[in-house]
Automatic annotation (TrEMBL):
CDD domains: LbH_SAT
SMART domains per UniProt: SATase_N
Transmembrane domains' residue ranges: none
Catalytic activity: L-serine + acetyl-CoA = O-acetyl-L-serine + CoA
Domain Serine acetyltransferase N-terminal: 14-118
EC number(s) recorded for this UniProt protein: 2.3.1.30
Keywords annotated in UniProt: Acyltransferase, Amino-acid biosynthesis, Repeat, Transferase
Family: Belongs to the transferase hexapeptide repeat family.
Keyword Flavoprotein: no
Protein name according to UniProt: Serine acetyltransferase
Length: 269
């Protein structure tokens, strides 16, 4: 490993592990050598790799890869918490997704991770008053990944979105740290009101596939929302809700549902 990468690795264990896994992946599958070198091994930091990967995915005839990469580079240079959140997201995916066996996988292959990192750039643009450019990022994320996250939404770190197909997160939604959700989750509104109209998701919450959480309601920390549920009212902390409309069916069953990813209701019925 080059000296510059060695120095970075000493202070960035997540990036160090990604580099090690990338080098092994090139040996194991030489046909992916070009992809892995361009996406990982040619970069001196996780920030550079993220900027390259986001730009590659979101570029189109309407905006070039180079321009998008410059925007991402500017964002990561201005706000170090963006890359810190990305590191936490990688670790969350690795810890919670049984299909993830390496830190390298989310960066290269998982659209849930890539969509969330693209949203983080859009949110940085939104906060900087560059709303139209933020909307462009939102549009491209939706077109590319099938994930629609409004750039004004506030999302914490340590987020795992499994499969990530048809995720919708509205403008005034708030998602706390260490939340896990599966595909087809909607954090939406209930009408045409323009003020605070979307859910507030506490820390450590697990949201099952196809669940719809609607309106300006609060989902208590470390709670579980069963797959297919429609949640229209506040959910107390550390409880499980299920059904249409969702009702409390028991306790959460563990201290950290978003980490254990246990979606069965056997202990709640």
């Amino acid at each position: 490993m080059p000296k510059t990468k060695t120095k970075i690795a000493q202070i960035d264990p997540v990036w160090n592990r990604i580099l090690t896994e990338a080098e092994k992946a090139v040996v194991d599958e030489p046909m992916l050598g070009g992809l892995i070198h361009s996406s990982v091994l040619h970069h001196g930091s996780i920030e550079c790799a993220l900027a390259y990967r986001i730009a590659l995915k979101l570029a189109s005839g309407e905006m070039s890869e180079q321009l998008i990469r410059e925007i991402c580079d500017e964002a990561y240079a201005d706000d170090p918490t963006l890359a810190l959140a990305a590191r936490a997201d990688i670790m969350a995916v690795y810890d919670r997704d049984p299909a993830c066996h390496r830190f390298l996988q989310p960066l290269l292959f998982f659209k849930g991770f890539q969509a969330v990192q693209s949203y983080r750039i859009a949110h940085w643009l939104w906060q900087g008053g560059r709303q139209d450019l933020a909307y462009f990022f939102q549009m491209r994320v939706s077109e590319t990944f099938g994930v629609d996250i409004h750039p004004a939404a506030r999302i914490g770190k340590g987020i795992m979105i499994d499969h990530a197909h048809s995720i919708v997160i509205g403008e005034t939604a708030v998602v706390g740290d260490n939340v896990s959700m599966l595909h087809s989750v909607t954090l939406g509104g209930t009408g045409k009101e323009e003020e605070d109209r979307h859910p507030k998701i506490g820390e450590g919450v697990l949201i099952g596939a196809g669940a719809k959480v609607l309106g300006n309601i609060h989902i208590g920390h470390c709670s579980r929302i069963a797959a297919g549920s429609v949640v229209l009212h506040d959910v107390p902390p550390k409880t499980t809700v299920a059904g249409v409309p969702a009702k409390v069916v028991g306790e959460a069953g563990c201290a950290t549902p978003s980490i254990t990813m246990d979606q069965l209701l056997r202990d709640s019925l």
